[in-house]
Write a structure and sequence with these properties.
Length: about 400
């Protein structure tokens, strides 16, 4: 036994204003939902909640897809579940890479043994439907996988035209909408998306740990051709699929669909508290109304951008394809980015984001998402950043930022 063991103090994390690229502060109602009583996974109340979650997320995704459910795990679990369930070794996948999370799709597809072709665009830009069509004609993929809002670059990949191209060429179309959902338009059925996965910790205003996923009937059929029912729960009426079984057990979407389906075939134990949170996130989004929520994100994003520009800071990337909910801003040459971030956290309790890869040390990423897509969060962040930059003698225009942002909230 470790005689030096201590119980530490009662958990009491500091109050922070989370203005990075996610996670963000959750809506108070989501915290309430998280603290509700646990019930058994086959309690009719619980299975009723599961059905409600499916219905609510059909609304969030703007889809009629029967197969709409949660994968238990962070947003990456939804991505991995979709890719590992669709792609068999040797399958061809086309991946437009607009940032770090495009590389993640490649990494997962590579581990599956898929044949990958990428369309690489400079960070700060997005991919065109023409580039996609040319690559599809040449490569003939089974799947096109992309990221909608890539937080690493703050760009929002337009999907409608790519969806039309994929549909016309009979290519399955998947997108990771973790960072964009609920802050930017996402029309799953209208844009011919066959699979979409998301997370709660950005514009949906919840904690990380649950990944809403939706699959078209066609995509569900492709996955179910790989169905394998585990020994111990398999009954005479269960039929094995004709294609090779999915390599992952936990992320086997054929089994997860059976767990969420009428048979409720046992797979994992549904993460009850996270389901409560996901349910409340969707209720909040639908109650406020998708157009209103997205407009609120745009207003906050535009106000922040105007404030930073008025301060004399330069914004990163093509502003016409920027996500509404997170923006990149160049760190002034005179200051060290991490020192400023540290001062913001320690003096004001405000967190903003660093950046990855080619942008590391060059830009900060500031998010205005979910509960934090509000005037007071934008103004407080601008005022705090300005005062720290002045302390470190950055060459900025003082006294302009907050006023410029307030113009968006008349
Ligand atoms: C676009 C995108 N995809 C996936 C993820 C991964 O999410 P998680 O950390 O919840 O697995 C993130 C997280 O920042 C993201 O921004």
């Amino acid at each position: 036994m470790d005689t030096t063991q201590t119980l530490f103090e009662t958990l009491n994390p500091p109050q922070r204003l989370l203005m990075g690229p996610g996670p963000i502060n959750a809506y108070p109602r989501v915290h309430q939902a998280l603290s509700q009583s646990l019930i058994g996974q086959y309690d009719p109340v619980m299975t009723g909640y599961m059905n409600q979650v499916q219905s609510l997320y059909r609304g969030v995704f703007e889809t009629n897809n029967q197969q709409t459910f949660l994968v238990d795990g962070t947003a990456r679990s939804g991505i991995e579940a979709v890719l590992v369930s669709i792609l068999q070794p040797g399958d061809k996948v086309l991946i437009p890479v607009i940032g770090r999370f495009g590389h993640l799709l490649c990494e997962i597809a590579q581990r599956v043994g898929a044949e990958i072709k990428t369309i690489d665009v400079e960070w700060g830009q997005v991919c065109t439907a023409e580039q996609v069509e040319t690559a599809i004609k040449q490569f003939q993929p089974k799947l096109l996988a992309t990221v909608q809002g890539d937080t690493s670059t703050t760009m929002n990949q337009p999907l409608a035209d790519i969806g039309e191209v994929c549909h016309r060429h009979g290519v399955l179309f998947y997108c990771d909408a973790t960072a964009s959902i609920a802050g930017n338009e996402l029309k799953v059925d209208e844009w011919h998306l066959d699979a979409v996965s998301a997370g709660l910790q950005k514009c949906l205003g919840g904690p990380s740990g649950s990944s809403p996923v939706t699959l078209s009937d066609l995509c569900a059929e492709v996955i179910n051709r790989r169905k394998h029912v585990e020994a111990g729960i398999k009954a005479a009426h269960h039929q094995e699929g004709v294609d090779c079984p999915i390599q992952s057990n936990y992320f086997d979407l054929a089994m997860i669909m059976d767990y969420w389906g009428p048979e409720r075939l046992n797979h994992h134990t549904e993460a009850t508290s996270m389901l409560y949170a996901a349910r409340e996130c969707a209720r909040l989004f639908l109650e406020e109304g998708s157009n209103t929520v997205i407009a609120r994100h745009k207003q906050a994003g535009d106000a922040l951008a105007a404030g930073l520009a008025a301060m004399g800071l330069r914004l990163f990337g093509d502003q016409s394809t920027k996500m509404n909910n997170v923006l990149g801003v160049y760190i002034p040459d005179e200051v060290d980015g991490d020192t400023i971030r540290g001062e913001l956290l320690n003096r004001f309790g405000i967190e903003i984001g660093t950046s990855f890869g080619p942008l590391h040390g060059k830009i900060w990423r500031i998010g205005t998402m979910g509960y934090n897509a509000r005037q007071e969060c934008v103004l407080t962040t601008l005022a705090a950043l300005e005062s720290i930059l002045l302390k470190y003698r950055a060459k900025i225009a003082p006294g302009q930022a907050v006023a410029a942002a307030m113009e968006f909230y008349r």
